[in-house]
Amino acid sequence: MAVKKKKIEELMYKEKPLVRRGNTLYYGFIDEKYIVKIVEESSEEISGTSIGNKVTVQLTTNNTKLQGKERIIRQSKKEGLFDALDVGVVWLQDVLDYDGE
Length: 101
Prior knowledge:
This protein is of the alpha+beta class. Helix content is 19%, strand content 46%. The longest helix is centred in the last third of the chain and has 19 residues, at 81-99.
């Protein structure tokens, strides 16, 4: 008997996908040259939901020839997920506009 897979809709923010894997969020299209990575360093519980209150936001390249820290273009620590996402959106848009993508 074949098992049907549920189609999961992507969460989109400002016309780019936002994907969560554990305590890490990825923002942007994976096939583009750059992507934003947001890592929750600590979180707090609000109404039964875990919300990141100290996060690291990184603009990284998708260049597979580079390893680890070499892939990080810009990095900053923020006091909340929304602040980190706002910074990440600006960084990503700037770098993609600069590269002409």
